């Protein structure tokens, strides 16, 4: 790619006979082995031949595999740059990255050209190209692009890791037989994947892009690698050798004033916002995430005996870092202020079955001037390890407007104090309206609609989808404001509305609006369900939310309702696989309406 709006920032044509050690290091950015990869990187599997970078994959017999892999990571970005080059090459938004390659196409080998954060805070990750070899005849003909990121938008949050599900390009022939150019344009507002200059997929999803624009995850570095037995199964019946070849690698950068235009700053906000909230994730590997008012002098990060501490991630993975009291029996507080109104939290902690150690949780709605003790649900998970018990604390309710969360570590033994290993806090706008009462919101002067959602506030029966007045409403159609009180048609409408006729008596309950926010962090599959229900007969009775696994009901929450219209929120969760949420509204006559939101 060489358009006039781009400038060449980096290029290596591998014409010098040896690998450029200023730009490339042999191995991954973190060493010579990778998870779910049976091949160790070997120096002899990386060399230059005929102006091409050759990365061999070898089976030496008996299940012993080696591979060639190279990276452009900066040695200054990590503590132990054993496999990194002298200087490195970094990439980020506003760049186009491409390479001309012939990937290996042997079953069980996964050749890839990809990137991840220079500081190793994974995810996110961009796979410019991968070739999957499960054992199907057509595997070697298809190039795949992919984006890995955390749904929380945070760097290094593996608990919410997911893949965007980007597309692929079917070349119709074995990709190892011909040279092809694999490219990716990385912009702040869109990421695009190319095969020989042809765009085959892209995304402008703001939730995905926020993870790739997060400054804590930037810049990235590039890698070429060949994982073995990550996908498919490699032949171990005989020795063999295969290779990935790279003709050149380039990085282009936008010239000033060119490229994809940014979004108009004056553009109206998206009215289809799904109401999702931000999540603060603390892996407890340092004290920097804590608010300055925390007792940081009395706390430290414990990284010893990680095999005794487990994450509630479904696999009981070792917890490499926990925050604990530093040799004192005094209480010590961990305080979080995420920058918005806290609505939910989840904490993984550890205490000792013999020596104790306890945790208390408090919420503040006034910046820490006063605190209210909370009673989160406590669940034990994984087996006890060397006397250490693994506990999850999940919020059952959080006061509206909570801006700080405090976790107090206490116990009689300084050496066996309780430890906190993982914290997740959901938060939203600074000021939130309680969905049940609306007490925190100021009433509108003329309008019965909530400004943010355009939903009825509870006194109006406007049509929720269109925003237009129903037949029995006396709002002005053009403005949405109430008609003058002396409007004749409006008077008639009001008479009909207060009439005790059979229309209202025979009315049925309606689910006006529902919104489900899914969260699959850690052990639990959670659903946070907001709803608005109405009944023109003013005889609402109850709303029930059920968490489903196919037809099985895993958990249920029910609220009593009455009157014309009600709104509220339910939170249900299960450690089993879930398929959907079912919301049911019932009136006093036993008439019901249901809706199902799939997972």
Task: Walk me through what this model shows.
The protein is mainly beta and 599 residues long. The chain folds into four domains: 6-254, Jelly Rolls (Sandwich), CATH 2.60.120.200; 278-428, Jelly Rolls (Sandwich); 439-499, no CATH class; 510-598, Immunoglobulins (Immunoglobulin-like), CATH 2.60.40.10. The protein has helices at residues 206-213, 488-497, 502-505, and strands at 6-12, 25-26, 39-41, 46-49, 52-59, 65-67, 70-71, 90-91, 95-102, 109-117, 125-130, 142-150, 161-163, 168-170, 180-186, 191-195, 198-203, 220-228, 240-254, 278-282, 299-302, 322-325, 332-336, 341-352, 358-364, 372-373, 377-380, 388-394, 404-410, 419-428, 510-519, 525-534, 540-549, 552-560, 565-574, 580-587, 592-598. Strands 1, 3, 4, 5, 6, 9, 15, 16, 17 and 19 form a ten-stranded mixed sheet that branches. Strands 2, 7, 8, 10, 11, 12, 13, 14 and 18 form a nine-stranded antiparallel sheet that branches. Strands 20, 21, 22, 24, 27, 28 and 30 form a seven-stranded antiparallel sheet that branches.
